[in-house]
From TrEMBL:
Residues 103-183 form the Dynamin N-terminal domain. The keyword Nucleotide-binding does not apply. The chain crosses the membrane at residues 453-473, 479-497. It comes from Candidatus Scalindua japonica. Pfam families: Dynamin_N (PF00350). InterPro entries: Dynamin_N (IPR045063), P-loop_NTPase (IPR027417), TRAFAC_Dynamin-like_GTPase (IPR051943). Keywords: Membrane, Transmembrane, Transmembrane helix. This is GTPases. It comes from the Bacteria. The keyword Disulfide bond does not apply.
Length: 578
């Protein structure tokens, strides 16, 4: 294990990193990022372990051969085809041993003194025909603290290597050493040209020239197993060993131990900050969109209410025409001449009243038509409102990530059945006009005429009797004539008085019914419209409330993330690593 207690200062720095990793792990657990949480946990678990030197590169570039050359023994399988299918952690041990850790990882030991504070990690080759090999390697890179990238002289700095290097250096910012292998296959002129090619292309990507060490793993392994000092020097492996085992002293390794997880967190935090900011922006846009939709709905409601008011004018016209027809009928038929004429006719006045007043353009029929037209109008517009709401919700769902929120799933329209309770109630209320039924009103007119006619007959009979009595009895002529005239006048005024009384009573009743009918119609239709808007509002507002809650939660995450990021950057500044 790395001796972390060499100095209180180093121990203090490392402890702060451990605490930060623990807090970061809890943070990623809370936000549900299982993948990053797992990676942070892995880095926290290896913080006290020897420095991880990860050997990476394309398959057949000589990674396993390089490890064998370092050990001077073929402890790893190598060859021209993809031979490494697991992450192999090589650590110090008194004996050579191998232990399977899981499906993708194994641990080996070897008695090499330098492995006491260094773990060499051999990885499956990238750009392999076996795609899983690259995924295994990419899934482990975050744990590397130094990366030794092996590229082959016969195909240096390929496109797949460029992509992988961007992951290594661009995303995770790992300490990187280039090893150009198989130089035994090239001339010195070719070798210099390849070095220039690597440095130029690397500089184009990352803005600085890399450390490149050339060697031949084939010659190195052969020299170590045969004891050929001249071939060992020619292989140039001693220069690589010097860099790994001597130039990376304890302080350098400690700095890398501290720096690697911190740089990982900085990259993760920066990426997450952008994601969370986009989420807040999206939530704000969605909330604004909901508010705009609610404004449109309210405007639509007002338009519907304004349109319903026009039916009030139609209703008033129906009642006005009814009053005019009744007035005309009374003036024309409820008088002495018409009544006497009608007495000799077969048609009764109540039948005539029903036929002329209620027979053509029956007001009840007209009012039912108005009610049905209004219901049709409200139905159509309520369906339009539901379509607007459902289309809005579906467009928002299509735009955002897939959700399991049942409240956002399109449902059947709330208001699509013309025979709903609301319509039935509305029609029932409309039957208040039943009190102006033609049969009932005809009977009332008939009673008016009959009572008036009887009163007329009685009074005129009395007047006539007085006149006859003047000639039979000795009644003073002047007084008798005056009394007879008064009775005759009262008899002739009976029909106008009864007609006026019935007209006034009828007109007052019709006006009251008209006002009650219009108030009822407006009230009921407003209730229907408001109920639909309330149901739509509940669905839309629940969607908006979800976005409000999400925005609040994301803002809390941003605040916590900012604090963690500041702690991370502060630790980097205190480490004094450039």
């Amino acid at each position: 294990m790395l001796e972390v207690a060499k100095s209180p200062e180093s121990q203090d720095k490392l402890q702060h990193v451990v605490e930060l990793l623990d807090d970061a792990k809890k943070f990623f657990y809370r936000i549900g990022d299982v993948e990053i949480e797992k990676k942070v946990s892995e880095m926290a678990a290896q913080i006290n372990e020897p420095l991880y030197l990860v050997i990476a590169g394309e398959y057949n570039s000589g990674k396993s051969s390089f490890v064998n050359a370092l050990c001077g023994k073929r402890i790893l399988k190598d060859g021209p085809t993809p031979s490494t299918n697991k992450i192999t952690l090589l650590t110090y041990g008194e004996d050579v041993s191998s232990e399977e850790v899981d499906d993708h990882q194994c641990k080996m030991t070897y008695p090499l003194e330098a492995l006491k504070d260094l773990t060499i990690v051999d990885t499956p080759g990238t750009n392999s025909i076996i795609a899983e090999h690259q995924l295994i390697t990419e899934g482990f890179i975050h744990r590397s603290e130094v990366v030794l990238f092996v590229t082959s002289a016969d195909h240096p700095f390929t496109e797949s290597e460029r992509v992988f290097l961007q992951l290594l250096k661009g995303k995770w910012d790992r300490k990187l050493l280039f090893v150009l292998n198989k130089i035994d296959l090239k001339t010195e002129e070719d070798h210099n040209e390849i070095i220039t090619f690597i440095e130029k292309n690397f500089y184009r990507l990352f803005g600085y020239e890399p450390k490149v060490i050339s060697m031949s793993t084939k010659d190195a392994f052969l020299a170590k197993t045969s004891g050929d000092e001249e071939l060992l020097k020619k292989s140039n492996i001693e220069k690589v060993e010097q860099f790994i085992f001597e130039k990376m002293d304890y302080d350098t390794k400690m700095d890398l131990k501290i720096l690697s997880p911190l740089k990982y967190l900085v990259n993760v935090f920066d990426g997450l900050k952008n994601i969370l900011s986009e989420k807040v922006s999206h939530c704000n846009n969605e909330i604004k969109s909901v508010e705009m939709f609610e404004k449109r709905s309210n405007n639509k409601r007002q338009d519907m209410i304004d349109y319903i008011v026009k039916y009030k004018t139609e209703t008033q016209s129906v009642f006005t025409r009814l009053k005019e027809k009744v007035d005309n009928f009374l003036n024309y038929h409820v008088n002495i001449r018409s009544i006497i004429t009608m007495k000799f006719a077969r048609e009764k006045i109540d039948d005539k009243f029903k036929r002329e007043v209620f027979g053509v353009a029956n007001p009840r029929t007209e009012l039912e038509r108005i009610i049905n037209d209004a219901i049709d109008y409200v139905d159509r517009n309520n369906n339009v409102l539901w379509d607007m709401a459902n289309d809005y919700i579906e467009s928002e769902i299509a735009f955002q990530r897939k959700t399991n929120d049942d409240s956002l799933v399109r449902k059947d329209r709330y208001f699509s059945n013309r025979e709903s309770d609301k319509h039935v109630n509305l029609r029932e209320y409309a039957k208040q006009f039943q009190e102006l039924d033609g049969e009932l009103e005809g009977a009332k007119v008939y009673r008016v005429v009959q009572s008036g006619f009887l009163n007329f007959i009685v009074l005129e009979g009395l007047a006539l009797g007085i006149v006859i009595g003047l000639s039979t009895f000795f009644i003073p002529n002047t007084l008798g004539i005056v009394v007879a005239s008064i009775l005759a006048g009262i008899g002739f005024s009976i029909f106008p008085l009864k007609r006026k009384k019935y007209r006034n009573e009828f007109m007052q009743r019709v006006d009251a019914i008209c006002e009650r009918f219009n108030n009822m119609m407006l009230f009921e239709f407003e209730k229907i419209i408001d109920r639909v808007l309330e149901d739509i509002g509940n669905r839309i507002s629940s969607y908006r409330d979800t976005r409000w809650s999400e925005r609040e939660e994301v803002n809390r995450q941003i605040t916590e993330l900012k604090a963690l990021s500041e702690r991370t950057k502060d630790l980097i500044r205190k480490s004094c690593i450039q």
